[in-house]
Amino acid sequence: MKILDKYIIRNFLGTYIFAILLLLAIVVMFDVNEKLDSFLKAPLKETIVDYFVNFLPYFANQFSPLFTFIAVIFFTSKLAGNSEFIAMFSTGMSFRRLLRPYMLAAAVIAAATFLLSAYVIPPANAKRIEYTNKYVRNKSVEYGTNIMLMVAPGQIAYISRYDAASKTGYRFSLERFDDQKRLRSRLTSQSIKWDTLYSWQVVDYVIRDFNDSREEIQKGRRLDTIIPFEPRDFLIASNDHEKMTSPELSEYIARQKQRGVAN
After folding, report:
1. Whole-model pTM?
2. pLDDT, tens digit, for every residue of 207-224?
């Protein structure tokens, strides 16, 4: 690291941070003006700690590439205006050598942006989204209709309607197929209630087991059973992905593909 490298990197990162802070100041002003009624309903501590502390890093990270570009243009034009490039090239410096501090500063910004977006900001987004759902506008999905998904290999579940408030689904069916895609068992019920994790309570159920040419029927009032799916697999809000770190998001996408969910 030469003096020139430190000089350019300091100008690069300094201009970048200044541009981001200037943007955030403007964003806060417009955001307060737009959501003032909602902010007045919420406690001041929650507004500052749960919303703005988590909203500002999220917004700054979203616009990081744009302000990297702006920072380069701004401070490079300033260097050119002060004839500093003439002094650099007059010493025999190559253009590739001049790019070194630019690339180092860009690598620092890129690494910071990746770590923030992949691991740091998603947990913070959970608090921000919870605040906006509570005080600004509720975007959480409270019910679903015509839900069909593969809960396990060869097992297809269907719910006509699910209500998140009561944790209850209506007109439920679970079909099990063998390797030849032949129907082997079918469970139907008037309703199904979610307890915890994969625990479900089936109400007014009928189980039909098909064994070649024979059919066995079981009926009952209630049945506690384990079915490997849960409401978060089909009650999907548009901003759910913002709350997941990169590993969590990759795992979620893989699981949804296996279930055949079209989101």
Report:
1. 0.80
2. 999 987 788 999 999 999
